[in-house]
Amino acid sequence: MAGTGSTHRVRHDDGTLAFRKTAALPGLLAFEARGLRALAGAGARVPAVLRAEDDLLEIEWIEDTGRATPQTEEAFGRELAALHRDSRPPEAGADWFGAVDGHPHRPAGSDRGQVRAWLGAAPIDLAPCDTWAESWVVRRIVPLAEQAVDAGSAPERVRELAAALAELTAGFGPDSPNTHPGAAVLGGAEPSSLVHGDLWAGNRLIDAAGRSWLIDPCAHRGHREVDLAMMDLFGGFGPGAWEAYEEAFPLADGWQERVLAYQAVPLLVHAVLFGGGYGRQAEAALEHAVRLGG
């Protein structure tokens, strides 16, 4: 999901190429730059940030002339698994969920209030939270549902389902038993990972050597199934990616059932930004999530 602004290739005096983008939304590109740097620090392959300002971002130019093959998909699955596995908290008691200023430390001074971030061009709240239920449901699903309904982009039922989901997952945290309804919806209380956060096929480049590069992140600490669900939403990834991921870093039982539930946030964002049928799709995703916890 691209934010508002322009993008183009630039050639510097020394002949090097770069990708330059501008945005009308204050802070969007700074958030993207922090995400790219956090992903790079965690070992992901991303373009280097060359210049970052409030309304301008310049990154390394990547020639995305490669094609997806069984080999590229398998390698991508392994690399994503490594990112999620190796970015988990370094010590007991250090876990949290939300926005990143670096890796892997909780941003100082941001324990309260909101942290303004973007999924595409939609503002979202990524304030650091002690529980995934608060970060994903309370700070994202509920307000996005309100926005979509108020804008007439989603049926009133979406607001009701979001409130029901918040009630179902209330109190679900690291010490909750797997019998808590939140475990069925959110996948159990596993540690957070650094996730790309907007991992649809358009945000992955393949170069001539068959290497995958990640761009345009909504990087944050969250549940790793967020990235898997986003990969599934619009397609574009071969089955070998999931198979290699599962082999390298097995997912918790029932993850396939949670894919639709984890698609609720990007579908709500699409409803807010584009309207159309996305509101009804978000309704179906939330209905599914509530059924999982019921």
Could you explain the architecture of this structure?
This protein has 294 residues and is α+β, with helices and mostly antiparallel strands. The chain has one domain (64-293): Aminoglycoside 3'-phosphotransferase, Chain: A, domain 2 (Alpha-Beta Complex). The chain contains 10 helices and 11 strands. The chain has helices at residues 28-41, 70-86, 132-150, 156-169, 181-186, 225-233, 239-248, 255-262, 264-274, 278-293, and strands spanning 5-11, 17-23, 49-52, 56-60, 98-99, 116-119, 122-125, 193-195, 204-206, 212-214, 220-222. The strands form 4 sheets. It has a 4-stranded antiparallel beta sheet with strand order 1-2-4-3, covered by helices on one side. The mean pLDDT is 91. One of its GO terms (molecular function) is kinase activity. Belongs to the fructosamine kinase family. It holds the Pfam family Fructosamin_kin.
